[in-house]
Inverse folding.
């Protein structure tokens, strides 16, 4: 693995403030003394049957990486993979429409994107944001004695598994969707509230992302 990553390290340059060394949520590149660009890309396979809701979930998930760095999202590009046959254009349109709704809520412009033929549907966003170089929240700067704060409840993975087995009530399903499509906009303000570190808890769960923070710090 180190041989694969070494050429990337060599191309980093001095203005790359956050790279992949600690598996942080996004890269950060310094432009000026008071402005840096936050850049991330993320996509997922469908977690719900409703394509519009899936688009909303995927967009909120992608944008969350920028918030986790203390940044403000500015622009997004759609990343969409889909099978060559069997999926109506209307379904793809609903996915993109759902994502567009969440981007509009975040004040994040959608500037286009890229599609690719794939065996299964995959969708997400490449998101560009901005942050002050001195106000970056990393996953590697936690301090002994810090209090852990969660912006969303844990357990969405377990609820998704239960949903696929038909074991969620309508109220539980709606609560799950609300959680997954809500923006972590408070990330923009966490530095002012005294946060020392931050990360987006997703596929690796609290234990996996917590381990990354502990090792990085």
């Amino acid at each position: 693995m180190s041989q694969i990553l070494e050429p990337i390290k060599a191309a980093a340059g001095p203005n790359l403030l956050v790279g992949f060394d600690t598996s942080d949520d996004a890269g950060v590149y310094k432009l000026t003394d008071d402005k840096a660009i936050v850049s991330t890309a993320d996509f997922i396979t469908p977690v719900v049957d409703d394509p519009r809701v899936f688009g909303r979930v995927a967009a909120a998930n992608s944008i969350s990486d920028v918030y986790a760095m203390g940044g403000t999202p500015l622009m997004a590009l759609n990343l969409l993979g889909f099978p060559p046959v069997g999926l109506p254009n209307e379904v793809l349109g609903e996915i993109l429409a759902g994502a567009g709704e969440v981007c509009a809520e975040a004040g994040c412009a959608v500037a286009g994107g890229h599609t690719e033929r794939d065996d299964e549907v995959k969708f997400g966003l490449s998101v560009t944001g901005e942050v002050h170089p001195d106000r970056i929240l990393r996953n590697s700067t936690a301090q002994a004695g810090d209090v852990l704060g969660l912006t969303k409840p844990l357990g969405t993975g377990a609820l998704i598994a239960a949903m696929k087995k038909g074991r969620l009530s309508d109220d539980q399903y709606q609560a799950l969707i609300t959680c997954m499509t809500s923006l972590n906009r408070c990330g923009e303000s966490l530095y002012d509230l005294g946060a020392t570190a931050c990360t987006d808890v997703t596929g690796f769960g609290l234990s996996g992302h917590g381990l990354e923070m502990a090792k990085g710090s």
About this structure: The mean pLDDT is 94.
